[in-house]
Specification:
The complex is a heterotrimer of chains A (352), B (249) and C (263).
Chain A (H helix, E strand, L loop, with lengths): L3 E7 L4 E7 L4 E5 L6 H9 L6 E6 L2 E5 L2 E2 L7 E4 L11 H11 L4 H14 L15 H13 L5 E5 L7 H15 L4 E4 L3 H7 L2 E6 L2 E7 H6 L4 H7 L2 E9 L2 E5 L2 E4 L1 E2 L9 E6 L5 E3 L8 E14 L2 E8 L2 E7 L1 H7 L6 E7 L4 E4 L1
Parallel strand pairs in A: 3-9, 3-10, 7-8, 8-9, 15-22
Antiparallel strand pairs in A: 1-2, 1-4, 4-5, 5-6, 10-11, 12-13, 12-16, 13-14, 16-22, 17-21, 18-19, 18-21, 19-20
Helix pairs in contact in A: 2-3, 2-4, 3-4, 4-5
Chain B lengths: L1 H16 L11 E8 L3 H14 L3 E8 L1 H9 L6 E4 L2 H9 L3 E11 L1 E6 L18 E4 L4 H13 L7 E3 L2 H9 L5 E5 H6 L4 E4 L9 E8 L5 H12 L1 H9 L5
Parallel strand pairs in B: 1-2, 1-3, 6-7, 6-8
Antiparallel strand pairs in B: 3-10, 4-10, 5-8, 5-9
Helix pairs in contact in B: 3-4, 8-9
Chain C lengths: L10 H21 L5 H5 L2 H34 L3 H15 L2 H12 L4 H8 L8 H26 L3 H8 L4 H30 L2 H6 L10 H11 L1 H25 L8
The chains are: A alpha+beta (352), B alpha/beta (249), C mainly alpha (263).
């Protein structure tokens, strides 16, 4: 079992990445498009050369300013959105390719390939040609093929992005099972992938690692707009008055429930509110302990079953998910003045 | 569609008229002469003489192998005069009914041995000095090859050529470039090669004469001009030009 | 799906184009002395020419693959000015007038040329040998293979090579087990084109190799000679050449369809 250490500097690509992946940890990599996520994977795989820095896999140095271990000697597997199965080989030969390249004889390689195919639930596809596979089947075979080489590090570049939702769910579970206990870097845009597969999470932005920690902590208490968006929650910053109230603008206070990392009075804090927890009214609703704050509708965005209403709430951007019926009854339009109410139990407050 | 057709017509006409002289007081009468390739230089100069003596007449030549010219005549090519490098091809044209009257002999050509300048392979003639050397001749069947074969037979020599060319000029160029050690060509070719080759006369070469025959075609619409051109070739001026090129030796 | 139809008038020039290409070939078939054909083709000169052509073209095709395939691989990975130079050099013989190709070979490999002289001094005298025929044919035919294979390599995605490398395959393994199998159809069609081009090669052979029955007089040279001697034989041999070329071209069309890339 090998850990992965990366300090990769590629000025041409505006990248200076620092990362330490513990052995046996699946680390999810998220970040805006063009942040340098794929460059990170390519640095580790050997598809991009670093100009300074160092990459080690376990005890092996695979890249530095004057070391470059070629791709085929790195013991690194790469899975991308496209399965890239060799079109001229059948499924079994595709999976046996890695063991064969490593010097195994045909029988040993085929035995290994059969085992890997079984592990991803594709035993019955062994004699098919890649063009006879569905997208999900092809990606499972690609997983089997990658893992048949016993890689020290598995690199995944949005391997589920090209699949239908239902198929992606199945392949996601296969991946979760097959990656358990391996050292892996997993680039994704889906919070579900992180919850299901990753134990650690790094956020890359502008060619730098800007956040790095246990996935569960970063997802339950997002602290940046990017992570808040990934988790689908509203994030409102403010100053703590006490552990249940956050002043988000002068005189505007959000009440909520304290989280594991409670607010410290006078310190910076964050309020996390899911869009579906936000209700809109034309006048003050009154009643149970609620937050009822003045807001203005900035835009309205239909999203299938719900309508997302974007609000300007005391200078913060907050989203509310309503039914189309509710939006119609309230007669909402950009510029409408509303009262946004949220139950205090739906507001999680934590330290910044 | 009409525009397209017009464009095509224009292109075709343009392409066909490209060989015509530019507009102005242009010659009105064309005399088309089909002549064996070996007559290229001499006939071109005779053409110029002829044009000078016949204002308003333009002589157009087509030089090619005699057999190819017969094929073209058979296919209806519009020629007024045909000059063949051998009797056999002229006979083909005559028996096909292409010629007007009996064609007449106007000159002869004989074979000679040529070697590259400096004679690197030290060839002395059609003898043992050719053994193991690269000799190039014309292929049996084409006029110069048939003549070569006949001459070798008459002289009792066995030739072992490394290449049998279709055109006598291909023999010439291979000797000129030094690719071949020796070649058998017509005296006229040897002369045309100048000092790029050295000529070694074959004693008894005159036993095989190549007869050049000329005649007017039956379909010629310029019978008088054709006759005049043939007279020029056969007359003293024509014979002088031909002799200067090595013909009739 | 119904594609938007072509304007009908396109059929007129298209039909003219078909006629333009087909009429000379059909005229030849009409002109063929069918009754005498077996006799004409069975003459020793004709058999020698055909057999020599097939032998030299087969050798030329092998040489074109052995030398041209590596060149195509290198060119497909090359960028920048030297790549342009290399690609130009590799394709110029395709568009060179055949006689020019022959002259170029003559001044390089002729007996009086530096390289040819050096070879002759080392016991390799190409002049007027079957070897010279193969050299001339390879010079004009190999570019067809290079162009076909390089095009296929360039349009092929890198992803298979990358996948193979991450699976632990070194450059030789990637080449042998991934790259070459993927471009195999292009190699086959390029080889067929090279063979067809070699079969038709005339000018460079005539200029550089000479013309001797059984040694250097290939089918086109025999046709060229027979055109001067006996038109019927020339036409009969031409038909053989046309049929061979048609078979090769049709075969090429089959190769270019990859069986596994239809979805």
């Amino acid at each position: 079992m090998s850990g992965l250490y990366v300090r990769g500097v590629v000025p041409d690509r505006g990248v200076e990445l620092d990362l330490d992946v513990p052995a046996g940890s699946v680390t999810a990599v998220v970040g805006p498009n063009g942040a340098g996520k794929t460059t990170l994977l390519h640095l580790v795989a050997g598809l991009v050369r670093l100009q300074s820095g160092r990459i080690t896999i376990g005890e092996r140095e695979v890249a530095s300013a004057d070391t470059y271990v070629p791709v085929h000697h790195r013991r690194v597997a790469l899975l991308t959105q496209r399965p890239a199965l060799f079109p001229h080989l059948d499924v079994l030969a595709n999976v046996a390719f890695g063991p064969r390249a490593a010097g195994a004889d045909r029988t040993a390689a085929n035995v290994r390939a059969v085992a890997e195919l079984y592990a991803v639930g594709c035993s019955d596809l062994a004699s098919r040609r890649p063009d006879q596979l569905s997208g999900g089947q092809a990606q499972r075979v690609a997983i089997a093929r990658a893992l048949a080489t016993d890689p020290d590090v598995v690199l995944l570049d949005e391997p589920l992005a090209g699949l239908d939702i239902g198929v992606a769910a199945e392949v996601r579970h296969t991946l979760a099972a097959r990656l358990r206990g391996r050292t892996a870097l997993f680039v994704t845009h889906e919070a579900l992938d992180i919850w299901t597969i990753a134990d650690r999470l790094v956020v890359v932005d502008g060619g730098r690692v800007v956040e790095d920690g246990p996935a569960i902590d970063l997802l339950t208490r997002p602290r940046t707009p990017f992570l808040a968006q990934l988790c689908g929650t509203n994030l409102v910053p403010g100053v703590a008055l006490d552990d249940t109230s956050l002043e988000v603008a002068p005189g505007v206070v959000l009440r909520g429930v304290p989280d594991d990392e409670p607010l410290v009075p006078g310190g910076a804090g964050l309020a996390s509110v899911l869009p579906e927890a936000v209700a809109l009214h034309l006048s003050d609703p009154g009643g149970s302990p609620r937050n009822a704050l003045a807001a203005e509708v900035t835009s309205i965005e239909p999203r299938g079953q719900v309508v997302r209403v974007h609000l300007d709430l005391a200078g913060h951007l907050v989203a509310a998910d309503l039914t189309p019926q509710a939006v119609a009854e309230l007669g909402l339009a950009p510029g409408s003045s509303v009262r946004a109410s949220v139950k205090a139990t739906q507001v999680r407050l934590y330290r910044r | 569609m009409k525009k397209f057709a017009a464009l095509v017509a224009l292109l075709v006409v343009g392409a066909c008229s490209a060989t015509q002289p530019p507009a102005g007081p242009a010659p009105t009468t064309q005399l088309v002469v089909f002549a064996a390739a070996s007559l290229n230089t001499t006939f071109a100069s005779l053409g110029t003489q002829f044009e000078a003596a016949h204002p308003g007449v333009k002589v157009t030549f087509s030089f090619d192998g005699s057999a190819a010219l017969v094929d073209q005549l058979k296919a209806g090519a519009p020629a007024d005069v045909f000059a063949s490098a051998d009797k056999a091809n002229m006979d083909k044209a005559t028996s096909a009914g292409l010629m007007a009257g009996a064609p007449s002999l106007f000159t002869t050509n004989v074979l000679t041995l040529i070697v590259p300048a400096g004679n690197p392979a030290k060839i002395t003639g059609l003898d043992a000095s050719l053994d193991g050397k690269k000799l190039v001749v014309c292929a049996d069947g084409v006029p110069c090859g048939t003549a070569t074969k006949k001459l070798a037979g008459l002289l009792g020599v066995t030739l072992k050529p490394v290449s049998e060319e279709t055109k006598v000029t291909d023999v010439r160029t291979k000797v000129e470039s030094g690719q071949a050690d020796a070649g058998i060509v017509y005296v006229t070719d040897a002369k045309a090669s100048g000092d790029k080759v050295k000529t070694i006369a074959i004693s008894g070469a005159d036993k095989v004469r190549n007869d050049y025959v000329i005649g007017a075609t039956k379909d010629s619409k310029q019978a008088a001009l054709a006759a005049a051109f043939i007279e020029l070739v056969k007359g003293p001026d024509g014979q002088k030009v031909l002799a200067a090129a090595g013909f009739g030796a | 799906m119904i594609r938007p139809s072509l304007p009908r008038w396109v059929l007129v020039p298209a039909g003219a184009a078909v006629l333009f290409l087909a009429v000379p070939l059909l005229a030849m078939l009409v002109r063929v002395p069918w009754v005498a054909l077996p006799t004409l083709l069975a003459s020793p000169a004709a058999v020698d020419a055909l057999w020599l052509s097939l032998r030299t073209c087969a050798l030329t095709t092998v040489l074109s693959v052995v030398l041209g395939l590596p060149l195509a691989l290198v060119l497909s990975r090359s960028r920048g000015r030297w790549a342009v130079v290399g690609r130009t050099l590799a394709t110029v013989p395709m568009v060179l007038p055949p006689v020019v190709a022959g002259l170029a070979l003559l001044v390089a490999l002729g007996r009086r040329a530096p390289l040819g002289g050096w070879l002759a001094a080392h016991g390799v005298d190409l002049a007027f040998t079957t070897g010279a025929v193969v050299v001339a044919q390879t010079f004009v035919a190999m570019p067809y293979l290079v162009v076909a294979v390089e095009g296929a390599l360039r349009s092929a995605s890198d992803e298979y090579g990358v996948a193979a490398a991450t699976l632990g395959a070194g450059p030789t393994t990637v080449l042998r087990r991934v790259t070459l199998p993927l471009v195999a159809p292009a190699v086959a069609s390029g080889a067929a084109l090279a063979f067809a081009r070699a079969l038709g090669e005339f000018g460079a052979t005539l200029t550089f190799a000479g013309s001797l029955q059984g040694t250097t007089r290939t089918l086109p040279l025999e046709i060229y000679l027979q055109r001067e001697v006996d038109t019927d034989t020339a036409i009969a041999l031409s038909v053989v050449l046309i049929v061979l070329a048609a078979v090769l071209v049709a075969g090429t069309a089959r190769f270019t369809k990859r069986p596994w890339s239809e979805t």
